[in-house]
Amino acid sequence: MEIEVLEGVFDANEIIAKENRSLLDGSGSFMVNLMASPGAGKTSVIMKTLEGVAGALNCAVIEGDIAGKVDSEKIAATGVPAIQINTGGSCHLEAKQVNRALNRLKLEGVDLVIVENVGNLVCPAEFKLGEDLKVMILSVAEGHDKPLKYPLMFSESDVLLVNKIDLIPHTDFEMETLEQTVLRMNPGVVIFKISCRTGEGVSDWTDWLKHRVKAGA
Amino acid sequence: MHELSVTESMLGVVLRHAQANNATKVSRINMVLGDMSTVMEESVRFYFDIISKETIAEGAELNFTRTKLIGHCGVCGKEFEVVEFDFRCPECQGTETEIISGREFQVESIEIN
Q1: pLDDT below 70 — which residues of chain B?
Q2: CATH at residue A158
Q3: Residues A186-198: tens digit of each pLDDT
Q4: Would A95 disulfide with which of A17, A65, A110, A179, CB 3.0-4.6 Å?
Q5: What is each CA distance from A62 to A36, A43, A83, A93, B23, in whole angstroms?
Q6: For chain A, how many structural domains are there in total?
Q7: What is the residue range of A48's domain?
Q8: Contact between chains at A184 and B87 (C-beta distance less than 8 A)
Q9: Closest residue of B to A147, CA-based?
Q10: How far is A133 from chain B (nearest CA, A)?
Q11: What is the pLDDT of residue A73?
């Protein structure tokens, strides 16, 4: 006997992502899902972003890593509330893990929650967390040819931060090729070119984000 | 890379529907998998064999129907196959493309005894 099922394998995750959405709406908080490869500069981008929006936005950070709490300690040292999620081997965050973290955070009065996803350009793109904005980082040393190798991530992201632009003179990185490829895959994407080390371009990104959070919250 | 947890979710969906229909055995699982999903068919088969052991779905045949990546142009309304991840409309060069298929991983139906 054949039985009709018609159920998506990611449906359960998407139901919890919607719960996260209503939690965030309840407190008027905006959530960013930050995704990138290991070493692209996720934690540095978060530190710089927190600095850039300080005074304008109250922030909290959820750190996803396979193991360890190095990153959340680094964030907490700045005085911003940070919660570490250890996925224990899993290559991405799922909505239910973020749900537990959101319930532990005191969301009241928090304007911006930044979620640092597990370092990976594949799997995080597949799992909705209930975010307002998907932001990805590509660092110059990874090369301009990555979009076509990781199409889902590049086509799903609302914002692309090209980080470590101070390294460009030492590499064969072609910014124009990168931009052309990404815009073909994702015409609506907003691209910022930044260097967390020199600070170049960072305020363009943080000013834009402040604006978005205030418009969206 | 995340096929273990994805396969667990898939098996969970299958077993829930099987039990709701008082099945004693699941013989076939029909699924739709989009070409742009990051899920690998091979890995799902591999993990399914391991995690379905001692469940009523053990030994079930896995049948995947693949769907192409199809976009719908929000400007001129044309439906088109997205080739090499170029999401611009081939008709009007519009950039407001909505994906209508090719991303899904869905359990369509199961065959039970």
Answers
A1: 1
A2: 3.40.50.300
A3: 999 999 999 999 9
A4: A17
A5: 15, 11, 5, 10, 42
A6: 1
A7: 11-216
A8: yes
A9: B85
A10: 17
A11: 87
Judge: A4–B109 Cβ closer than 8 Å, yes or no: yes
**Least confident segment among A72-76, A78-82, A154-158, B87-91:** A72-76
Within a domain: residue A5?
no
Chain A nearest C-alpha distance from B93 (Å): 10
Q: In angstroms, rounded to a whole number, what is the distance separating the alpha carbons of residues A71 and A192?
A: 24
Is the pLDDT score of A199 beyond 80? Answer: yes
Q: What is the DSSP letter of A48?
A: H
> Which residue shows structure tokens 């943080």?
A206
Per-residue pLDDT, A89: 75
In a domain, A35, yes or no: yes
Please give the Cα distance from A98 to A103 (Å, whole number): 9
Which residues of A have a CB under 8 Å from any CB of B? 1-13, 90-92, 94, 120, 122-123, 125-126, 147-148, 151-152, 154-155, 184-188
Cβ separation of A123 and B111 shorter than 8 Å?
A: no
CA–CA distance from A39 to each of A123, B45, B103 (Å)?
A: 17, 32, 28
B1 in reach of chain A (CB within 8 A) = yes
| CATH value at residue B21 | 3.30.2320.80
Which chain B positions have a beta carbon within 8 Å of A154's beta carbon?
85
Beta strand pairing call for A159-163 and A30-35: unpaired
User: Cβ atoms within 10 A of the Cβ of B32, count?
Assistant: 18
Q: Does B95 touch chain A (CB under 8 A)?
A: yes
- Residue among B6, B58, B28 nearest A3 (CA): B28
- Tell me which residue range forms the domain holding B65: 3-112
